[in-house]
Structures are given as structure tokens and as C-alpha cells.
Amino acid sequence: MTSLGDSVAVLKGVGAKRVVALNKLGINTINDLLTYFPRRYDDLSIKDPSKAIDGQKVTVRGLVIAEPMLTYFGRKKSRLIFRLKIHDNIYTVSFFNQPWLKKEVHPNDELIIFGTYNRGRNQIQGMKILNNQHANSFDSIYPASKEVKQTTIKSLIKLAFQTYRHQLVDIIPESLRAKYRLESFSNTIKNIHFPESPQAAQRAFRTAKFMEFFLFAMKVQILKETHRRTDDHAKIEYQKGTLTAFREKLPFKLTDAQQKVIGEILRDLARPIQMNRLLQGDVGSGKTVVAAMAILATISAHKQAAIMAPTEILAEQHANNFAKMFAGLNVNIALLTGDTSAAARRAMLPSIQSGEVDLVVGTHALFQEDVRYAELGLAVIDEQHRFGVNQRQALRKKGTSTNMLAMTATPIPRTLAITMYGDMDVSIINQLPTGRKPIKTTWITSSRTNTAIRFLKNQLDSGNQVYVVTPLIEESEAVDMKNAVAIFERFKAIFEPQFKVGLLHGQMSNQEKDDTMKHFKNNDFQVLVATTVIEVGVDVANANTMLIFDADHFGLAQLHQLRGRVGRGSTQAYCILVADPKNDIGKERMKAVAGSTNGFFLSQKDLELRGQGDITGQKQSGMPDFKVADPVGDLNILTVANQEAQKITAENHWKNKPENVQLAKYLQITQTINYD
Question: What would the DSSP string read from start to end of 514-531?
């Protein structure tokens, strides 16, 4: 029996090498291939170039009126030139680096060319010669790679559609298709890959967007239901006295927001249902102590806890912080990262497996196959947007009934909450600890950089340390941005020998990064020039000033995250944004960061100004990778799809209803959902 879950290896012409190349594009199954959608369409309908605008892509038909000329230059570079008569006009056509096309061009031949029209030169820069393949006037253009060309993707999709068309049964229940005027699954796939008109493609994409959101929402609801099942092993019977004693020993008073969130978490832990909670808190709002309460509650019930951080530096900081917090409480802490030596790891693993270790702090190393826990009662994920759903689940599966607490300092607007955290309960710390001074933020243009440097000098003279942040590591010809190496050299020339300058960037080894941060924390150097690797990093209480070059190249929420590296001590903190935005939106973004220290406001603003794109200034691992749907641009479709998924899953035995049978089957094949 053929199935959409079949490997692409079953298709003719797909050998072992091609399977690997397709896998790199995210194409593993027939379903992946059929839902590998075009990124755009080229209109191949024939046009008169004299009526086209400059720079427009056009398809033209004309007569070759002279011998083509092929010239080579540079290494493996070539140019093919010939003249084409279209109506009464003569156009020069050139093809770069396609020397084999010379065999297809002969005087007096009629050719159909697709290319870019240059009005000033009366020239067409050819992209392809169509002729025989000009059956369809809309050509689907796919994301391709060196190993897998456009033509290969197209032919494989065509073959898969012909072979598996009968498997494209309707997944969306008939009542929903009628209600929202959606196309059948088969027609959706056909009209996306082989559209007869732009309107047909548009209708198909509308259905594909609904389907993508709907299937994701179904998956989320099923996950949520799974987490809601009664599970006596998930219950944490914590010792209230231990928590009270810990709270009373703290050198500060918890904020009302922290106490409220701790109450929500402890209520979850006390129930016979696995906790699946997200803790959102702005930079410096005190999430760590909340996590400490949850961890201590778990340990007091004689179960283990684990906390996973995205970097070795942050994991080590957590291990040190928890060691200080839990001093005198007989809590055994182990630090397990990729940098842990083989000998230390061998000694540590039996202690984790036996339960001798109460709290394991680490990175991805925590869920490696050979790491076994005695009874993992709580998994805490720090900076959870750095981890994908599968990584979070991998850690959770290290226990039989593990409670999950995910934490993020990246505020996510409610518009994205459905997609990112639909299966989680959300707690928000919306209050900063008393006494913490807001960071004073200023935006200046690059012409005033020297003024900013003088300000940095004053701060250094006062005994403070400073961060200098830049988007690039080394000079790039393509992008005119400041780079860390050049800035490092410049600041050394300005500040040394009076003040030492250090350099930190992503291409350094983990050990080098750790050493650099330790030196900075110990005040061995006073200025740290860094790329965004410090966005999530070690607290340096003495660092009170940050200068960010090319600030308009970062997301607003990311700028807010970076800014949160300063202001960790009692001194007034400052952040200076250096940017020359090219348009009004760029200027508005800079004003927004300078004018607000509220991360939730800034993330919503970023969403409004930039679209979903990149809320944290980088690809979020936790963000579902929708192929055609956009959670911001298509928010109405997302909302409706989510509501319909909730209605369906709210019914008992929903998957046994006749109109839902194919939906349940498809979810099982493609989403690897286990209903057992």
C-alpha cells in the first residue's frame, strides 16, 4: 500500500545521494515533497518588450538574426550573445555562464526567451530558453540547492503527484470546507504546483494556509489534552516548610508578581497532571528565583530536577547561582555540558542515574541517550525560544511523568502566542524588583559616535565596565556595517593601555567564549567588544554601559535583550544606540527602543513594524516553520483555524466521527501524533 508517509526514495530516479540532498531541503516523505511549495511564479505569457518596464521579467518570442557569439572570461565564466528580432525591433540577448545553450541558438530560428528587460540598453538578460516547455504560462519557482536543481524538484513533484494523487483524500472535514469555501486537498496541491492562472494559485494557497494552521492547531490541542491526563506520578508532594525557610533566607523580598507566579507553579506541581507552563518575564524581572522555588519543591519531594540552558556560559552561571541559593540545604548539583570532560562525565552519569544528584544543570547534553535519571520530576528550559519543540520533549521524556517549566525573557505578543505556546499555560512576571533603576537609552546617528566614546571614557574613569556590540564579526563587502574585529582594534587604540579591551564573537570556541566572559566578569578587561553572543549571557554587575553599533539591524526585542546585560548592579545603567536608519520605519523603531523599557510593548511594536519575520532578531527554534502561512499577515485565518480545532477536540471520541477519520489518520502519518 502506498502512503503519503512513504520515503521519497521510492520515486524513480531518487538514489541514496539524492535522498540525502532532498533531506537537507526538509523533504523526507512524499507528503513533504507534495507540500514543498513554490516561493513564487514566473509569468511566462509572451509579452512585447517595447511595452515592458525597465527591470521587468518578460517572456518574448522572436527570430534569431545572426550567429550567436560565445566568449569566455575569468575562471569558468562565459557570455553568450545573439540578436533577436521581435516585431520590427532588434534586441540583444545575453546569457551568462550557460555555454551549452549555444547549441540551441541558430540563425532564422524562432525562440522563446525568459529574462530581464533592460530598457536603457534595449537588452534582455536571458534566464532560460523555453520553447518546448512553454505549455504552461505560469512557471513554479522552488527553493533549490546546489545538489537539487529546479528541474529535478519539478519533475519529482510531477511524478509524486501522478503516483500518489489517489492518496490526496480530503483531510479537512466537509463541514469546514463548505463553511469556508475551501478547495479539495487534491486540487489544492495541483493548483499550487501547476496553476492554470494566478487566481487558481491564489485560491489554492488560501486553502493551504487554512490547512497548515488547522493541522498545527489540531496537533497543539492533542498535545494539550495529553498533558491534561490524570497522572499520579506527576504529582509533587513538596515540603512547605522547606520552601518557607528558603523564602525567609532570601536577601530580598519577592515582588507581588513573583509570588503570584510561584503560587501558580506550586498549584500545578501539587496536581496529578503534568505541568506544562511557560514563564514569561522581562529582562531582570527575577525568573531565576521563581525557578529555584519550583526546583526546591521538586527536590523536597525526593525527585530530581534539570535545568537546560542554550549555552555553556549560561549553564555554568545557573549552576553557580543555584549553588549559592541552595547553600546549607543539602542540594547536590551537577553541571553537564558539551564541554564536560569525558572523565568527569563518566563519574557524573552513575550519580545522576542513582538519584544522588538532585539538580542537573546543563545544555543539550542533558537529553543525550546515555544520560539517565532516577526520577526526573521537573524539567526547566531557560530561554526556551532557543530550543525547538522536539528538544524540549526530548528532555521531558527522560522522566516518566516530568513536569515542564519553560522560561523566556523574550516577550511574545499575544498574536503569536497561539502558534508558539498553544499547548502551554502562561505565567507572566510583569513587575521589576524594587530598587532596580530603568536603563537610560539614547539613540544617536553615527556622526555623533565620538560623543558616545567620550561618555564611555567617563564611565570607565568612574570604575565601571562597558559592552560594545556590533552585528558582524569581520568586514563584509556586501553589507556596510561595523564589524567586531575592526571595532576591537579601534577601541584598543583609544583606550589601551589605561583600560583593557576584550573581544567575544560566535566563531570562537566555547572554551574561548567562557574564558573571555570570566575575564570580563573578573574585571581583567574593562571594555568588551562583542557580537550578539552576549544576548543571553553571564551577569556582570559592574558593567553599566552598552554601546550598540548599527542598532537598526537588530530586532527590537533583541535590542531589549542586549540592553538587559547592563543594569545588573546598583549603578545607573546606560544604553546608546548608534544607527542611521534609511527610512521612517527604521527611525520609528529606534525611537521605540529609546522611549520604552517594556519588552512586551517593544515586541508588539516590532511585530507591527516588521511583520512576523524575526521577533527576536533571529530564527526562533520554537516557532513552527509554516511553509505558506504567516501568523501575522494571516492572523484571521490562524484565529479561525485555531477555534475550529478547539471545537473538534473538545468533543469526546472526535476521531471516530466519520468526517474526522481522514483527519485523524493524516495527523498520525504526518505529525507523528500518538493517540494511545
Answer: HHHHHHHHTTS-SEEEE-
- pTM beyond cutoff 0.90: no
Cα–Cα nearest to 190, from 144, 136, 152: 136
Asked if residues 360 and 352 have their Cβ atoms less than 8 Å apart, the reply is yes
pLDDT, the chain, mean: 85
Query: Across the chain, which distance is largest between two alpha carbons, in Å?
Result: 95
The tens digit of pLDDT for each residue in 24-38 reads 888 999 999 999 999
Alpha-carbon gap, residue 37 to 3, rounded angstroms = 20
Confirm if 284 and 432 have CB atoms less than 8 A apart: yes
Nearest of 338, 344, 339, 378 to residue 358 by alpha carbon: 378
Beta-strand pair 123-129/110-118:
antiparallel
Distance CA 274, CA 266 (A): 12
Percent of the chain whose predicted confidence (pLDDT) is above 70? 89
Q: At what angle do helices 599-610 and 414-421 cross, to 10 degrees?
A: 90
Q: 440 pLDDT exceeds 90?
A: yes
What are the residues whose beta carbons fall under 8 Å from the beta carbon of 181, sequence distance 6 or more? none
Name the pairing type of β-strands 138-141 and 40-43. Answer: antiparallel
C-alpha cell at 407: 522560561
DSSP character at residue 382: S
Strand order in 276-281's β-sheet?
333-336, 359-362, 304-308, 376-381, 403-408, 276-281, 425-429
* 284 CB-near residues (< 8 Å, 6+ apart): 432, 433, 436, 564, 567, 568
